[in-house]
């Protein structure tokens, strides 16, 4: 493999990391509050408001039903408005984040919903405010599961970022399509797939270790 | 040990002036009459069409341990949750330390809840926090500084005997230890009332005894009022001063524990008590003849003064077949099965009459022949 090819692989790798990392971070920061709103406003929640709950649920479902490749194109005006261009790695972070946020919101919602209601009851019995319950009970108790869900989101984003190549975002997926598929360079294809396997396994491994460290529900040997 | 009820000390002292000197026998802080910490009037709460609690009125006196017993589905959980506003009644009045709480919104209930500790059947400890952080949570909610919290947590750990487990996570503890943490956490903010929601139901008998002993200790040492709900008479017997029996949302019986144990009036109470009261052994029961036999089998229930008298000596030829006398709240309460010779009907009748004048309840179950 030529030096030029290696440089290309290296650059694409970093583009993938950039896209996944930033959109992952944004989906975390935006998705977790959305999940909390879904939980709190649900029937029997700490701030029951079914109108907000159903509306937000509908918007999230709406975004989640649009295929990512369509969303990518449909969001071009939005992307252009935010980033100034609709092309390139940074531009792709906008549609990636917008797709990943509702995705993570739903995953985080499940994690938060699984927090034992008895713990919330205990905190209420102590005279805790809603904010205290969120900060001291809901989020810390759901943390292992929230982290596990975030790992899934990141891995999904690695895959989705390949599609972002369609708007010239670069990245490993783009490289695989243009060089490996369209120009029959099997070597590049194999290299890209190998790097992706290592990347995904790495993300998953780190996520699993973190969950293990955060989870105090079972006795460790 | 420092006094527990800080806010209401003045209140208690004024009351103390009005009550006569306490009997020396009774070591625990006697509740001053009229000093009710909780007062419920005609409280009703329904789920759908079925009332979970129906027109319940009761008071909890300061310093007492009140036990509420009932089968599952009797409305105990709903009732105890009404006291700290976790459950809202449909109608009726609930006063906590003189404050009507039924009309309070969630935000205004919070300071009331901080004055009431609660422990749970499944402990409800936060798995992500260490023992010390769990205990410190109510203090954090109160807004205490880190240093204050640390000091108080150390005191509480000592009180429940878990000083060496401060840095452990709940998952590393046994059930009994978890409940001790639960108790320490419930006491952290120096509440004036402790609610216990089936706190020993998930524990084995030995651990149950040690937890109950701890609750009793806390009641005595700190003068803390405790309201506990349970489905086990054994729990009531061990710790409660007064008992309320709940059946299908209604109060069916109420009174000092030893009296209710000695003379249960309601069917529910009798059946709940069955596990504790001696029964005629099956071998003997099978041989019972309803009409005649050598010996009459007489069931005698007795309590208090009657159980202390040597009345058996008066019954010529009577044998003790089975039974026992237990001590409840320092009072003897028992059930005896006696075999009394039955060939002389008049003598038997006289013996039964004699027993009736001494015991709470006397019943001729039948007759047996041969070796009883």
TrEMBL record, chain A:
Alphabetical list of Pfam families matching this protein: BPD_transp_1 (PF00528)
UniProt main location, coarse: membrane
GO terms classed as biological process: D-methionine transmembrane transport
Keyword Membrane (UniProt): yes
Taxonomic superkingdom: Bacteria
Compartment annotation: Cell membrane
GO cellular component: plasma membrane
Gene3D superfamilies with a match to the protein in the record: MetI-like (1.10.3720.10)
TM spans (from-to): 20-41, 62-83, 146-167, 188-207
Name this polypeptide is given: ABC transporter permease
């Amino acid at each position: 493999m030529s030096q030029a090819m290696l440089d290309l692989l290296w650059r694409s790798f970093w583009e993938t990391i950039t896209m996944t990392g930033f959109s992952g971070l944004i989906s975390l920061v935006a998705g977790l509050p959305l999940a909390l709103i879904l939980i709190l406003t649900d029937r029997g929640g700490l701030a029951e408001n079914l109108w907000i709950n159903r509306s937000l649920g509908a918007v999230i479902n709406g975004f989640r039903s649009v295929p990512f490749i369509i969303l990518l194109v449909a969001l071009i005006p939005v992307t252009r408005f935010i980033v100034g261009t609709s092309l390139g790695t940074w531009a792709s972070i906008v549609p990636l984040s917008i797709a990943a946020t509702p995705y993570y919101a739903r995953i985080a919602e499940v994690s938060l919903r699984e927090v034992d209601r008895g713990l919330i009851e205990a905190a209420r019995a102590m005279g805790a405010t809603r904010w205290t319950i969120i900060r001291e009970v809901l989020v810390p108790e759901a943390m292992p599961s929230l982290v596990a869900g975030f790992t899934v989101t990141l891995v999904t984003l690695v895959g989705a970022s390949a599609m972002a190549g369609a708007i010239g975002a670069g990245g490993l997926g783009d490289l695989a399509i243009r060089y490996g598929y369209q120009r029959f360079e099997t070597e590049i294809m194999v290299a890209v797939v190998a790097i992706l396997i290592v990347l995904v396994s790495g993300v998953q491994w780190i996520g699993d270790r973190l969950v293990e460290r955060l989870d105090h529900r079972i006795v460790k040997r | 040990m420092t006094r527990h009820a800080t806010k209401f000390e003045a209140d208690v002292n004024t009351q103390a002036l009005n009550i006569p000197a306490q009997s020396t026998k009774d070591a625990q802080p006697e509740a001053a009459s009229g000093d009710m910490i909780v007062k419920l009037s005609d409280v009703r709460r329904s789920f759908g069409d079925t009332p979970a609690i129906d027109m319940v009125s009761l008071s909890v006196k300061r310093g007492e341990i009140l036990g509420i017993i009932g089968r599952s589905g009797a409305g105990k959980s709903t009732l105890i949750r009404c006291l700290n506003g976790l459950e809202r009644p449909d109608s009726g009045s609930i006063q906590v330390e003189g404050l009507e709480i039924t009309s309070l919104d969630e935000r205004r209930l919070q300071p009331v809840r901080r004055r009431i500790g609660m422990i749970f059947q499944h402990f409800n400890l936060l798995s992500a926090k260490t023992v010390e952080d769990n205990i410190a949570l109510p203090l954090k909610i109160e807004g205490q500084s880190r240093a204050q919290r640390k000091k108080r947590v150390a005191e509480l750990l000592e009180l429940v005997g878990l000083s060496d487990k401060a840095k452990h996570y709940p998952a590393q503890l046994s059930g009994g230890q978890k409940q001790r943490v639960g108790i320490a956490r419930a006491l952290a903010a120096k509440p004036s009332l402790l609610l216990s929601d089936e706190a020993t139901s998930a524990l084995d008998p030995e651990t149950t005894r040690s937890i109950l002993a701890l609750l009793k200790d806390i009641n005595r040492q700190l003068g803390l009022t405790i309201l506990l709900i349970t489905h086990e008479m054994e729990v009531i017997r061990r710790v409660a001063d007064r008992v309320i029996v709940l059946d299908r949302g209604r109060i069916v019986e109420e009174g000092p524990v030893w009296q209710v144990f000695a003379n249960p009036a309601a069917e529910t109470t009798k059946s709940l008590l069955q596990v504790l009261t001696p029964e005629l052994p099956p071998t003997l029961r099978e041989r019972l003849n309803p009409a005649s036999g050598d010996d009459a089998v007489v069931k005698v229930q007795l309590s208090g003064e009657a159980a202390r008298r040597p009345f058996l000596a008066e019954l010529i030829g009577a044998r003790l077949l089975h039974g026992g006398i237990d001590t409840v709240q320092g009072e003897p309460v028992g059930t005896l099965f006696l075999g009394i010779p039955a060939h002389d009907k008049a003598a038997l009748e006289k013996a039964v009459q004699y027993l009736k004048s001494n015991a709470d309840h006397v019943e001729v179950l039948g007759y047996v022949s041969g070796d009883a």
